[in-house]
Structure formats: C-alpha cells, structure tokens
Amino acid sequence: MSRSALLRGTDGSVIPLRTTGGGEISAPISHEPTVSAPIYDYDGSAIASIALFENAGRDAEATEHVLRVLIRSTAREMSERWFRLSHRREWIIAARREDETHTSVLAVDRSRKLVGADHAAREFLKTKGRCFQPGLTIAEFFGCDFTPGRGRRYCDVALHLQSCDASSPWLALMTPPDLGAVQGRSRERLQVHTRPRLDVLDTAPIAAEGEKRGGLPARMLRSIEEYIDLNLEKDLSVEELASHLGISPSYFARSFRSSVGLAPHAYVMRRRLLRAQEWLVNTDLRLIDIALATGFADQSHFCRRFHQMTGVPPRTYRLRHR
Description:
The protein is of the alpha+beta class. The chain is 41% helix and 19% strand. The protein has three domains: 2-75, no CATH class; 87-208, no CATH class; 218-321, Homeodomain-like (Arc Repressor Mutant, subunit A), CATH 1.10.10.
C-alpha cells in the first residue's frame, strides 16, 4: 500500500504533503483521489483542496472513514484560520445549529452588520433564498438579534441563540478583535488569536444570550464604562469605581471581571491605550501630553505599556498609521 497526499490549488499547482512507500511526487496524479476536501478563501470561493491518492491496494472501510474525517477536518480548519486572519479586525462568530452538523463562520462589526461569511454560511443563506451581501444583519442570519461586545470583551464568549421562529437554536462562539494580534507584531499571538474554534463548540460552556452570571447589571456596566472613558486621566482605583456605583469594592471587582472578562485595572489600562492610539493617529500631541492625558505617570511608563500591548513604540505606531 502506498499513499500520496497533495495540496492542490485551483490553478493546477500541486504541493506534496506527505508520501509513503518510497514514492516521489513530481507531477499531478491523473486519477481521482480516494479522499478529497476543499479549502475555501475568506470570500467563500475554493482556492485549493487536500487530496489523498492510493497508489496500490485498498484500505479497510473503517480506515478510509478515519482518513476522510481527518482530511475534511484539516481542510475546514485551514479555511477557518484563513477566514479569521482575513477578518481579524472584526468580531468573529463560529456557529453550529444544535440539531444539525451545519456550521458557519461570520465576521460582524459593532453595528451588528455582517462584513464577511465563509463558504458554509453562504450556502446556508442560499437554502433560505438569500445571498450574502455586506450589510446583512445578525438577526437576518440567526433569526435573533444580539450585540457583539456584550459580555466578555477580550476573550471568547459562548452563547446559545434561540431563533424567533421554530427552527433549531444555534451554538455560537464569539471572538473579539485582539488589538495586539491585529497589528501583526507577534506571530505567536496572531496564531493564537486566529486558531480555529468550530471543533470546540460542543465543549464550550454555553450560556443563554443576555445572561451575565454573577456580572453587573447592564445599566451599571454602561455607567461604569462611560465613567472610565470620561476620567482616564485620573487614578481609577477599584475603590473609586465601586464608589461611583455605590457598591463594595470586592463585589464590584468580582462582578466587573465576570461581565467583561478582565479585572478593572486591566480594563482601564486597555481603554487608556486605545485612547492613546486614537490620539497618536489623529493629533499632533506630544507623547508626554498623551501620556498624562490618558492617566500614565510619565512618558516612560506610557511608552513601556504601549510597546507591550502593540509590539511597537508609540512613535513607530504614529508613523505607520498616519
């Protein structure tokens, strides 16, 4: 028994993935593959496929089934990773219908509009008599509405989405943009951020949309977010933030972390650095002025923390993004 595994592009190019039995791959194999699975681009078009060819003999049926599952899973993960890489500046939703094997990966913005859909999502829309186009809303796809960014804002959040009609609900995993990964300065961080998630939908802890287990009520969460954004230049301690809401510091710290996925200090630091990024690009303010206006002790402290998050110094960031 000898097998040849190839990565075949739609342009006819061939890349050997693995050979066994001492065979060398020097040209495309003419006969049909035993197992083949397509790889899709971020816009749903096929760009390549993984193909396994048997050069002699035949495996048992059980072995063929395992190979088929592995190759299809690998192709799906490659497609999903490329989609996530292409849409790393948006929220990504990996979803599966609860009573089916159908899966979809979508890219959405803060206004709940779809800006990208993988091949499976586009095929799903066709079954509903629709075609994908930018501007389609989350509600039009899932049959229910929700806002990306609610809940844990800097880590994946799993949701159970119940359609308003009689169709089966969706299991969904939302991934927010990662500022450091988006800049592309850290290869390891980018790899983690764009890792495939479809295969973990069955094991993710799912909560009903809108449920904030142990978190702050929506009204209090909005209030403290607005307060933080308006007072970034201050020393925003846990005690001061809790006092603004009229609750104890320990309860506030625990509930805030449950709501947004970050401790209060870490959240404030991210907001300061995001504000600094805006001013670096859109103003001519000196670094020391930006540092003090966003609550840093001095320019050195600001530059150090900025570099840690984005992978580049503030001056370099300003030059690259202007």
